[in-house]
Amino acid sequence: xxxxxxxxRKAKNEDVIVTVLSNSKVESYWRFFGARHSILQVGxxxxxxxxxxxxxxxxxxRSLSHLRFPWIFSAQHxxxxxxxxxxxxPHLKDTIEIEPFYFxxxxxxxxxxxxxxxxxxxxxxxxxxxxxxGRLYNNGFCYICEEPLDDKLGLMRAYIPAHPACIYAHSYxxxxxxxxxxxxxTIYLEDYIINELYIxxxxxx
Length: 205
Known about the structure:
By secondary structure, the chain is α+β, with helices and mostly antiparallel strands. The protein has a five-stranded antiparallel beta sheet. A hairpin with a 5-residue loop joins strand 1 and strand 2 (16-21). 32% of the residues lie in helices and 21% in strands. Helix 3 packs antiparallel against helix 4 and helix 4 (118-132) crosses helix 7 (191-201). It is elongated and about 60 Å long. It has two domains: 1-107, CATH 2.40.50.140; 116-205, no CATH class. The longest helix has 15 residues, at 118-132.
């Protein structure tokens, strides 16, 4: 089975519990002596075999290998990647079986991570997730006061738009933000806006 590591928790001695996102589920596995293995890092794509427990305990990971990407040794690329992928575990924690969308999206952007600006890829992927889940709020009204939005808007967590004065936030051009929502492309936005959008997405899905 292949999957992205979403979280690692210490268990007893040097054992760990590893939460993995595959193309069909999010599940936790026991890994014996996992604290010794550098393969077990949040964000890594791993291939492994599952051994079911005989006493109804959680299954364990065996024959573990790391499927590397070229950017894995770049500290900056790795930090942005890990910050982004950490959003998935709390977001999907109550989900067991899922559609392949999340795994395929992560695999798609991981293959581009060193070829394009990773913060732009993260913002675009974040928008795709919101759209896939039906949570991309773009109906033209402030989420707080429910009055029509002006030419300038602010953004809350999950890129929910509101009047800047209602949420004490940065203001953005409404047309440019709605264009972003519709296109899921950041190509026409300046880097400083991308940095602000990236910081905002770190608040969670």
